[in-house]
Amino acid sequence: MDVSLLKDIVIILGLSVVVLLLFNLIRMPSILAFFVTGIVIGPSRAGAHRIGQSSGAYS
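The structure corresponding to this sequence follows.
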C-alpha cells in the first residue's frame, strides 16, 4: 500500500470522527457529518488528482 494513500485515509477518517463528534454535540444527524467531511476534504484534497498520473502500477 502506498504511504500517501494511507496518509489520506487516516486524514479522512480522523476528520470524519471530529466532525461526527461535533455534530453529535449539536444533535444533528450523523449522515450530515459525513457529507460535510466529504465537502471539506473534496476530491482535490484527498489526492484524486494523482489518479491520472502515471505510477507504473498498471504498465
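The chain has one domain: 3-46.
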